[in-house]
Amino acid sequence: MKTTKFNVFRIFILGVFFVLVSTPTFAISDEPEEEEFKVTEVIMHHIKDAHDFHLLDWDGHPISIPLPVLLWTENGLVAFMSSEFRHDDSGKVIVERNGQKFVKYHEEIYYASNSADENGTYMLFNEEHDPLNEHPFDFSITKLVFTMFVSMLLLILIFGFSARAYTKNGVPKGIAKFTEPLVVFIRDDVAIPNIGERHYKKFLPFLLTLFFFIWINNIMGLIPFFPFSANLSGNIAFTFVLALITFVMTTILGTKDYWKHIFWMPGVPVPLKPFLALIEFAGIFIKPASLMIRLFANITAGHIIILSLISLIFIFKSIWVSPGSIFFAVFVGLIEVLVVAIQAYIFTMLSALYIGSAMEKHEH
To answer: 300-310 burial string, b = 16+ CB within 10 Å, else e?
Structure first.
């Protein structure tokens, strides 16, 4: 049995090696030198938001899944599919609706200029090459928004089936065997220790939603060939909104003791109280900011590292780099599987800690 497994593993390794060797991308030939591989553009294109899901390139033509473009303009609402731009992201393709012309430049939609420049682009730029065109209010269903809707649907389905997957005696079965230990873990190790047994039940639904919502979106961002996945947690706006919710809840639920400890710390000399008040007041905003940046930075960093390792193959243009590049990319990817769960747990735990500290009553 062990010999059979070893032979299968050896055949797999040899197959991967010959695929890499036979792939034209890694081959070195005497053909004219191609355009320089732009690592930064490739990585940023992968981690940023877009108006469609780019799946692959076939025979030099991109294949993608278009998404609805919704623009609020001076003439009212404008709606069309992103395929109208014909995969152009350089501002050369015009889409005309309601007497208005639009172009897409670096995944931003602008009003088109009256005439094209020498490069055929309907964009105006300043000396720093920043766009001068005005742009409408864009609330399109981008790939990040669509991914968020998919994750919400998955949450409803997972816990809908979990709620039904119990016997009459209350014994979990099926998917409930997976979800119940996680729910109990958040309740017993996150909610109760940080909020207290008196108030934890009011906030347990929020903490559970927060944990599973972040975790599912993190996992979806790791699946490379899943057509409706995107790096949602690697978007600063997404983490900002989650941190803002925690900040609002902490501010509203703050007790008299909470605010007293911020602005007039008991038990310390009076001359030090104004200085501590400034530090504690800054902490009100630093805490949610740390939540926002921690989740954003860790998820984005993982994607950038993996893409950078893969890009080494195209930078050096050598098949001898590919084994090491792929090995370390897979290694970092396995670490990312743990990181996505840890980051969801840390965000949930700190949110519970901040809510619990705001509601705590002190006896002096």
So the answer is: bebbebbbbbb
On whether the CB atoms of residues 220 and 147 are closer than 8 A, the answer is: yes
Residues 332-359 pLDDT 10s: 888 998 999 999 999 999 999 999 988 8
In the prediction, which pLDDT does 41 show? 74
Question: How many angstroms separate the CA atoms of 204 and 222, rounded?
Answer: 27
Domain boundaries, the chain: 51-141, 144-359
Per cent of the chain over pLDDT 90 is: 37
Q: If we measure between CA atoms, which residue out of 307, 310, 335 comes closest to residue 324?
A: 310
Kindly report, residue by residue over 18-67, the tens digit of the pLDDT: 334 333 333 333 444 456 667 777 777 777 888 888 777 787 777 888 89
At 292, which amino acid appears?
Answer: M
Listed in sequence order, the residues at least 6 apart from 123 whose beta carbon sits closer than 8 Å to its beta carbon are 91, 103, 105, 110, 112, 113, 117, 131, 132, 133
For residues 80 and 95, the answer to whether their CB atoms sit within 8 Å is yes
* Helix locations, the chain, DSSP H: 2-22, 39-47, 143-164, 176-186, 192-195, 200-222, 236-253, 256-263, 273-316, 322-359
The confidence score (pLDDT) of residue 5 equals 43
DSSP reduced 3-state for 157: helix
363 versus 75: the higher-pLDDT residue is: 75
Question: What residue type is 106 in one-letter code?
Answer: H
Which position has the token pair 């430049």?
105
CA–CA distance, 355 with 248 (Å, rounded to integer):
10
Rounded distance between C-alpha atoms, residue 199 and residue 222, angstroms: 35
As a whole number of angstroms, the distance between CA 120 and CA 115 comes to 9
Residue 34 sits at the vertex; the CA angle it makes with 84 and 301, to the nearest 5 degrees, is 70
Q: DSSP labels for 116-144?
A: --TTS----B-TT--B-----EE----HH
CB atoms within 10 A of CB 219: 19
Query: What are the pLDDT digits (tens) for 200-245?
Result: 999 999 999 999 999 999 988 887 655 567 888 889 999 999 999 9
